[in-house]
Structures are given as structure tokens and as C-alpha cells.
Design goal:
Layout (H helix, E strand, L loop, with lengths): L1 E10 L5 H11 L3 E6 L5 E7 L1 H11 L7 E9 L9 E3 L6
Parallel strand pairs: 2-5
Antiparallel strand pairs: 1-3, 1-4, 2-3
Length: 94
């Protein structure tokens, strides 16, 4: 199982980005989480097959209808724990 963490910038808070990302992750059978950051970005960890991660990354670049994504920073990740599902987490203090 591969994992990638993404930092998504732009108009990505207050536009249902997290819940839409959760829906997309579930469609692709991915595990992980998504949360808002206090600096206005969204952080997402996705784990699954490479093909599904590629499809998720394509969606992240567009996001939901009202989002305006300006940048995505993918980071290779080896998390200590991976949730059994894909969850929306509370805003991070980072």
C-alpha cells in the first residue's frame, strides 16, 4: 500500500473540499484523512493502490465546484498508523 500526503493551497476552505475529498477517496477505496490547516490550506493523507492515488491526485487539482486550487504539494509518506477508512479530521493547529 502506497501513501501520499498532500498540501493543497488556494480557495479550498469553506467550499466543501474536505467532504468532497472524502467522497472521492471512498469512490477509489482509499484510506486516510483530510483536514483544514489554520493557514488556509487543506492537508490530506491518502493510502491505496498507485492507480487510485493517481486518480485522487487528479481530482485534488480541481476539487469541488467552488474551489480554486492554486497549488498541490505531494509528499511521499510512511505514516505510523493508517485509518481503516477515510475520515475528515478537525482543523490542525499547525
Amino acid at each position: 500500500m502506497l501513501c501520499k500526503r498532500y498540501l493543497i493551497s488556494g480557495q479550498v476552505q469553506g467550499v466543501f473540499y474536505r467532504s468532497s475529498a472524502q467522497h472521492q477517496a471512498n469512490l477509489h477505496g482509499l484510506r486516510g484523512w483530510v483536514r483544514n490547516l489554520r493557514d488556509g490550506r487543506v492537508e490530506l493523507l491518502a493510502c491505496g493502490d498507485e492507480t487510485d492515488l493517481i486518480e485522487m491526485e487528479k481530482w485534488l487539482q480541481i476539487g469541488p465546484e467552488d474551489a480554486k486550487v492554486s497549488n498541490i504539494e505531494p509528499i511521499e509518506e510512511t505514516p505510523e498508523t493508517i485509518p481503516d477508512t477515510f475520515e475528515v479530521r478537525p482543523t490542525s493547529s499547525l
